[in-house]
Amino acid sequence: MGQRYLADSNVIIDYTAGLLPASSGDFLEDIFNEEFLISVIVKIEVLGFDHVFNKLEAMERFLNSGTDLPLDETITNECILLRRRHKKLKLPDAIIAATAKVHGLILLTNNAKDFANIKSLKILNPYDL
C-alpha cells in the first residue's frame, strides 16, 4: 500500500457536503474507498457538529464505513508531548496530530495552520490539490 491518510473533521464535513473542488473530491473518494481512517476524536467532532444533525444517519453510516483509530496509551503519550511543546494546540487537534504521527499517516486537513508548528507531522490540504 502507498501513502496512508488520516482525515480531519473539516475534510469529512466538506467532502460529505460536496464543498471540495472536483479534483479533491475524486482524490478523497479514492482514499475513503481504499482505507478510510479516522481518529476517535474526529468521529466525536463530526457527529457533534451542528450542521450534521439534519443528515445524522447518513453521516453515521459514512463514518462507520471507516476504521476508528482509538485513543490508546501510545497516542495518549504522544498527545501529552505535543501539548507540552505546543501550548496553543487545542486538545482535539493534539489527539488528531498524535494519532497521525503514531500511525505514520498524512493528515488531511483544511486547517493546516492549526498544525503548522508540528514539524514532524505530514499534512495535505485537499483544497490545494
Can you put this structure into words, describing what you see?
The strands form 2 sheets. A 3-stranded parallel beta sheet has the order 1-4-5. The model has no long low-confidence stretch (mean pLDDT 92). The chain has helices at residues 9-16, 22-34, 40-48, 56-64, 73-85, 91-103, 112-115, and strands spanning 5-7, 37-39, 67-69, 106-108, 123-124. Helix content is 53%, strand content 11%. The protein has 129 residues and is mainly α. The relative contact order is 0.20. Strand 4, helix 7 (112-115) and strand 5 (123-124) form a beta-alpha-beta unit. Helix 1 (9-16) packs across helix 3 and helix 5 crosses helix 6. The chain has 7 helices and 5 strands. It has a single domain, classed as 5'-nuclease (Rossmann fold), CATH 3.40.50.
Looking at CATH, the homologous superfamily is: 5'-nuclease
How confident overall, as mean pLDDT? 92
CA-based gyration radius: 14 Å
C-alpha end-to-end distance: 21 Å
User: Beta-sheet strand percentage?
Assistant: 5-15%
Q: Topology as H/E string?
A: EHHEHHEHHEHE
CATH architecture: 3-Layer(aba) Sandwich
Strand order of the largest sheet: 1-4-5
CATH class: Alpha Beta
CATH fold assignment: Rossmann fold
Structural class based on helices, strands and sheet pairing: mainly alpha
